[in-house]
Design a protein that fits this description.
1002 residues, mainly beta, Immunoglobulin-like, 22-stranded antiparallel beta barrel, four-stranded mixed beta sheet, 45 strands, globular
């Protein structure tokens, strides 16, 4: 019996003993006592070989090498190789390897042997190497690199070896088509050459020399050595812009408006390092603190059409309104309109520069502490406070104050060498307070004699006035005090097993949205000329075409639970194939209101009846959010740079409920929410314009109780290949299919001039469903030039087309997200509002003093002035995106203005003569999104340099210019039929501005 127990114990202990016999071998590679990133470390014993690459701190590790003697080789271009034996055992100390720089002539000679000339494939260069004399042995550094590249791709201690893709990390050198003595002055000794080699460590550069690369030079490497006491790092910066350096805003009218002076200032301070307090805290956590202070004053030029003095007295162009017929409410509201400040145009007659202010304070703080060798805890706190103010063309100055707080706590634990656990808790809070100009200042509606709207002090102000002929809309902001709060718990894990990296985890978020605001407390009047033939004439007589209002139930307390879970496997099938597959589940529950003040309509079949239903959550939850995802990367041809990538995934939109809940909360019986059409049965005036119609519902919004969350299916395929001249070409196809998109329509409506098919049926509300669909297909061609001789570039062209019947609206068109004909939703299928057929992106970067031909070895004052300037240019050019022609008129049976479209009669789509009012009894035939918007073009540039003041003191100077050519591009066209601005630009993008950054790093 004892023998059996002993035998079992021995058998069980064998794998445990093997595991315990493996230990970690770690070390650090330095030069002059400073860390060296990007060095190759080879651990070998017999046929076993493993490689690693040092990180930015010069550190490397082999997780669980078998105990015993191993040989370590360290190789780094430009340095003599290190060859030594180490004994791997539990608890062994970290190794330290000090590199020594080779003489410059040997660096160039070694590079010439190792790397073929530019634009010559390695296969073509191979015969020349083969023809070399038999006694031409490789240099020690080259031999070490060869051994590292020949290492087997097995895993060391459960970690994949550091594989450097030669096609993306190749390094060219000074030997490229250049004699070995190029740029070397006569009589230079090895010390001089070594100094030049240190200056030109990035000769001709590589893909790994970018600052964003994990192999980038450490801030304390080479000539930028930090002296003793450099455990703390920080910076002090100033970013500023002045109107003297900027172009004035574009004038749509051509008027020479004055350019007010303005400034933009931002101060930045950062500090980080170990938190040590003498005699109190000697081994404290690492800390980081950053603070940004912003004080911006901005100017934009605004143009408008306002009533002239003659029009104010009743002469509205072909229509004369007697003074006695001008309503007192109109006279009161007209006093808030400015008089024209120039004449000679019926498109615009008023223009002025508007000034806005933005003050912001932001603070970030982080702490990180390791507990033993397996556990790390860190946390962060972010604070941001913003105060903005801006006036409109009427001089109404509104202010907005926001506050944001965010706290994050992370805990990471390594279990053995293959399992990594991560826990996170996050809490965020934000508040927004909007104070309109008239709040607690002047009761505009009450003084004008307008009744039926909210006239509490916080909502004092004028009603919104909208005109179909292009006159400026009188409007002001709405008071709001909103507070959002989220608590989130996250867990995820990584398990390495053979060729698999398996991750899994989940999140849970409890979200609170607390609102104190009204949707439309002062109301809205729309004038289309139905009463007098002129929109301004209708306003003078005080007869609106439609009116809308929504107020009451100001305080709303929404709650939502959001959760997800996922599992994913990154499977390295072989050296040429990697498959990444996983499954994600997301659930965002319908938002509830804690006091049950949500309202929906219980709709009878055929929309023949609608009964209001109240509750705290009136939608059915949709828990079927399974999202499979799979992707692969495949190198089909051995020793080829061709890479094929493909992927497929499903993505759900779980954030749709917030807007739905806001609309459901602003409904009768908890609030007053009506849309009213002016007719003989229910005449409207400015004085009494919010009287509910007997045929309209007391609610303006309803949603399908079985509303389901929309999702998209994305599939993508790409081919990438290296090209001569340090180029990489990529061709990509991307397809997207959207399902269950949101659709909105107005039930029981009919075209003007037609008979009402169901006079007893409810109308006047918008109904939301999830039956929409969309498709998008895009193909792109990308050509990337790797960093070489200080120059890198990337150009990408994309051709795409997107179609949907779910957006149902146009950009910047008063949110007309409603179908025209509720009985023919398929007629709404058209180009998506974001469809951009052609898009070209170009990015270029050049750093002076890179490459021998670029001045790497340039010395003296010329080198000091010329080197290390980095210029970056970005250019974006794209075709215009679709816009919808709109005919402003009341939809029969409702108080909604739009979404009626005109009849298109042929001709240029931006010509007013190409359109006419819809034929009586029919809907307009103009297509949704049938007008192409203005083309887009941006050209930005920056210039940057870091001046090394002292060993630990660097001064960065940067200039950023937007729209450097000062080229005017339009934001959109005006597409409202009947407006004097139809077909003209509705605004211009920002003109040239130059921002300067001065940052001192220490």
């Amino acid at each position: 019996m004892n023998r059996r127990v002993s035998l079992v114990a021995i058998v069980v202990s064998l794998p445990v003993a093997n595991l315990l016999a493996a230990s970690e071998q770690r070390g650090i590679v330095t030069f002059g006592g400073l860390p060296v990133p990007g060095a190759t470390v080879l651990a070998s014993r017999g046929d076993q070989k493993f490689t690693a690459v040092t990180d930015p701190q010069g550190a490397y590790s082999f997780a669980d090498l078998s105990d015993g003697a191993w040989t370590i080789d360290v190789a780094m271009p430009g340095f003599a190789p290190v060859h030594a034996d180490v004994n791997v055992a539990p608890g062994s100390a970290a190794s330290k390897w000090e590199l020594k720089m080779l003489p410059f002539a040997e660096i160039v000679k070694d590079a010439a042997k190792d790397i073929p000339a530019p634009d010559v494939p390695a296969a073509a260069a191979a015969p020349a190497a083969t023809a070399a004399p038999a006694n031409a042995a490789a240099s020690p550094a080259r031999q070490a690199r060869k051994e590292a590249r020949a290492a087997t791709p097995q895993r060391a201690g459960g970690f994949q070896r550091a594989e450097v893709n030669a096609s993306q990390n190749e390094t060219t050198s000074a030997a490229d088509s250049i004699p070995s003595n190029a740029g070397v002055p006569p009589g230079a000794n090895d010390a001089d050459l070594a100094q030049r080699a240190s200056d030109g460590f990035l000769i001709n550069g590589s893909a790994n020399n970018g600052a964003a690369s994990p192999f980038a030079q450490s801030a304390a490497f080479g000539n930028n050595r930090r002296g003793p006491g450099s455990r703390y790092n920080g910076s002090l910066g100033l970013i500023f812009d002045n109107s003297a350096f900027d172009a004035r805003s574009y004038s749509l009218t051509g008027q020479d408006s004055p350019k007010p002076a303005y400034d933009q200032w931002k101060g930045v301070f950062t500090l980080g390092g170990p938190l040590n307090i003498p005699r109190l805290l000697t081994d404290g956590p690492m800390f980081f603190v950053g603070y940004q202070w912003t004080r911006d004053r901005n100017v934009s030029t605004q143009s408008a059409l306002v009533p002239t003095l003659a029009e104010r007295h009743g002469d509205v162009g072909g229509v004369t309104i007697p003074t006695a017929q001008i309503s007192p409410q109109t006279l009161a509201l007209l006093s808030y309109y400015p008089l024209p400040n120039f004449s000679g145009s019926d498109i615009y007659n008023y223009q002025l520069p508007l000034v806005s202010d933005n003050h912001q304070d932001a603070l970030q703080a982080r702490l990180a502490k390791g507990i033993g060798q397996r556990t790390q805890v860190d946390g962060g706190f972010n604070f941001q406070r913003t105060a903005t103010s801006g006036a409109n063309i009427f001089g109404f100055l509104d202010t907005t104050n926001t506050l944001g707080l965010n706290t994050v706590i992370n805990a990471r634990r390594r279990v053995g060498t293959r399992l990594f656990l991560h826990f996170q808790f996050q809490h965020s809070y934000s508040s927004t307070r909007v104070i309109p100009y008239f709040a607690n200042r002047e009761n505009v509606s009450g003084n004008a004699g307008i009744t039926g709207n909210d006239q509490s002090p916080t909502n004092w102000g004028p009603p919104t006035l909208v005109f179909s002929n292009g006159f400026a809309s009188l409007t002001d902001g709405v008071y709001a005090f909103n507070r959002d709060e989220t608590a989130a718990w996250t867990f995820d894990a990584l398990w390495n097993h053979g060729r698999h990296n398996v991750t899994w985890g989940g999140d849970y978020r409890r979200q609170q949205f607390n609102y104190l605001t009204q949707q439309n407390p002062r109301g809205k009047f729309t004038f289309t000329g139905t009463a007098t033939g002129s929109a301004l004439g209708d306003f003078l007589t005080g007869v609106p075409d439609t009116s809308q209002i929504a107020f009451g139930n100001a305080d709303k307390y929404f709650r939502q639970n959001v959760m997800d879970a996922f599992v994913n496997d990154d499977w390295r099938v072989g050296p040429a194939l990697t498959i990444n597959a996983g499954l994600r589940w997301e659930y965002g529950g319908p938002i509830s209101e804690i006091y049950g003040r949500l309202v929906n309509l219980d709709i009878a079949p055929g929309f023949t009846a609608a009964i209001p239903v109240t509750g705290n959550s009136l939608l059915q939850p949709d828990k079927r959010g399974l999202q499979p995802r799979v992707g692969l990367a495949w190198r089909p041809f051995p020793a080829s740079s061709t890479i094929v990538r493909a992927g497929y995934g499903v993505y759900y939109n779980t954030s749709v409920y917030r807007g739905i809940a806001s609309s459901m909360a602003q409904q009768s019986p908890f609030s007053r929410s009506v849309s009213v059409e002016n007719n003989s049965a229910n005449p409207l005036t400015l004085g009494d314009g919010f009287s509910a119609s007997a045929t309209a519902t007391a609610q303006t919004f309803a949603v399908d109780p079985n509303f389901r969350i929309g999702y998209s299916q994305n599939w993508q395929a790409s081919i990438q290949r290296d090209l001569p001249g340090s180029l990489v070409g990529t061709v990509t196809y991307l397809g997207t299919k959207g399902t269950r998109g949101m659709q909105q329509f107005l039930p029981n409506t009919y075209p003007a001039g037609a008979a009402n098919p169901c006079p007893a049926c409810p109308a006047g509300f918008t109904y939301l469903t999830s039956n929409g669909n969309s498709t998008r297909e895009a193909g792109s061609v990308q050509l990337r030039r790797r960093l070489r001789s200080g120059f890198s570039a990337n150009v990408q062209y994309t051709y795409s087309k997107s179609i949907d019947d779910s957006a149902l609206g146009g950009r910047g068109q008063s949110n007309y997200l409603v179908a025209q004909n509720w009985l023919d939703l398929s007629a709404e299928r058209a180009l998506s509002t974001f469809d951009q057929r052609h898009l070209l992106n170009l990015q270029m970067q050049y750093t002076t003093g890179q490459g021998l031909a670029g001045g790497t070895l340039l010395s003296g004052w010329r080198g000091a002035l010329f080197k290390e300037w980095t210029a970056i240019t970005t250019v974006t050019a794209g075709s215009g995106m679709p816009l919808t022609p709109v005919y402003l008129t009341a939809v029969a049976g409702t108080g909604v203005t739009g979404p009626v479209r005109p009849d298109y009669n042929g001709g240029p789509v931006r010509s007013l003569a190409s359109y006419s009012a819809p034929v009586s009894g029919q809907w307009g035939n103009a297509g949704r999104d049938s007008i192409t918007g203005p083309a887009q073009f941006t050209f930005n540039a920056s210039l940057d340099r870091v001046f090394r003041v002292k060993d630990r003191l660097n001064l960065e100077v940067r200039f950023d210019a937007t729209n450097i050519l000062n080229h005017a591009t339009w934001t959109t066209w005006n597409t409202t039929i009947g407006s004097s601005q139809f077909g003209l630009p509705a605004g211009a993008n920002a003109m040239r501005s130059i921002q300067t950054t001065v940052r001192l790093r220490f």
